[in-house]
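Support case: user asked for a sample of complex input and structure output to validate their parser. Sending the pair below.
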Amino acid sequence: MEITLRKENTVNVISAQGRMDAVSAPDFDNFLEKLLSTGETNFIIDCKNLEYISSAGLQSILKAAKKLETTGGRILLCNLQGAVKDVFEISGFDSIFEIYDSPEAALEHFNGERP
Amino acid sequence: MKSTAKIENLPFLMRKVSARARKQGYSEERIKQIELALEEALVNVCRYAYPGACGDVEVLCRKADDKIVVDIIDTGVPFNPESVPDPELDSSSVCSRNLGGLGCFLIRKMADEIHYRRENNKNILTLVLGGHAKSAKQDQAHSKSRGNHVG
């Protein structure tokens, strides 16, 4: 899996490409953990190029989201497609995360929250 | 395919099943679902079959009628994935959703049939994997109608 990061003001837009499985999920864990430890709180995970996700990937995202709840931060997702979208729906993760069609739409959500 | 039950060996263990599904003309969508069922089953073996020790896991793959049948065999502690209850799918918030329980649930959702038996001190988990992709929406409706029944 390839992970890239771009910053839009206070929001970290993370693009995950390839397979988020039991082999690669620990890398994603570490990536998120580093950002969390520097005090970052706003995240968008762009799944446009994510082809596959297993329970290990879902758990990585949920674990980070649980930590962010204590700091008032959050993770939004966008661009879910194909197998990844199906796994989110089957596992009920589409009910606990806000999912947008594009990073721009997710960014608008964060922008709308600003005082 | 036989290997030490370690997470880093998953791609090696899964390769042959994916190749067979591709050869049988399964769609890429269905192949990903099969890989998901297989990964979750193998992860259970890697993480829980041999607490504090190393052991092997074997993946046997055969064709039965128009379906692929996969046996996942280990000699670790007895574990029946069919006995694991479904996670709380109706949680509506991050804080109320538990981290665990998803793996066995996804195996059940992605396989057409699963069968477990303990034989000669071995766990043998059999996944029957047909060529039709599972639809998330149809499957959710089916799940509601059958409650938590496993099998």
